[in-house]
Design goal:
Helix content is 9%, strand content 45%. It has 174 residues and is mainly beta. It has one domain. A five-stranded antiparallel β-sheet has the order 2-6-5-4-3, with no helix packed on it. Strands 7-8-9-10 form a four-stranded antiparallel β-sheet, with no helix packed on it. A two-stranded antiparallel sheet has the order 1-12. β3 (53-59) and β4 (62-67) form a beta hairpin. The longest helix is centred in the N-terminal third of the chain and has 16 residues, at 2-17.
Length: 174
């Protein structure tokens, strides 16, 4: 019994000497989420400046340019010496797309959207095919960053970008 009390006393002294690790604060990217149903935010807007560009598609007389995670720039290329920005189509979380006539097929997260663009100023989502694509993690980490970042929480919605933030004890890193 005496040895038991000595063991308890020793363990309590050792455990009281162990200090907790201080919080680690670093600057790194944190995800920006779309609140609610992202497909409801699809709309035609006035042309805007280019940001982070992805895929280009040429169809008919138009050039369509993916604004990564955000939407599509529509450029009238009727006169190749003077291309003119006509519209910006807001498609939050856009990963990839293609154009077939008056339809745009857009990959938004795991979903495939079919968008009627016959009236380029009044877009209409014709169909949403849910969970068509595997979750390959395109928006699960910041592609232009090396180091710690805030992990994505799918319960918060679709990731549409990243913003710099002060992170406390980040659990994700690349």
């Amino acid at each position: 019994m005496k040895h038991f009390f000595i063991l308890i006393l020793t363990l309590s002294l050792v455990s009281s000497c162990v200090e907790e690790e201080p919080d680690v604060e670093v600057t790194g990217p944190r995800p920006i989420y779309v609140e609610g149903e992202a497909s409801e935010l699809i709309a035609s807007e006035a042309p805007k400046n280019f940001g982070t560009l992805g895929k280009f598609v040429y169809a008919s007389k138009f050039i369509y340019v993916n604004e990564v995670n955000k939407g599509i720039h529509v450029i009238d290329n009727s006169d190749p010496t003077d291309p003119t920005s006509k519209h910006y189509w807001n498609v939050p979380g856009l990963i990839d797309f293609t154009v077939n006539g008056t339809l745009v097929y857009a990959e938004q997260g795991r979903d495939l959207l079919v968008i009627d663009v016959s009236n380029p100023e009044q877009l209409e989502v014709c169909n949403i095919l849910r969970n068509v694509f595997e979750d390959l993690g395109q928006n699960q980490f910041p592609t232009d960053h090396v180091g710690p970042f805030e992990c994505v929480d799918p319960s918060k919605g679709l990731v549409v970008g990243w913003e710099p933030a002060l992170l406390v004890n980040p659990k994700c890193s690349i």
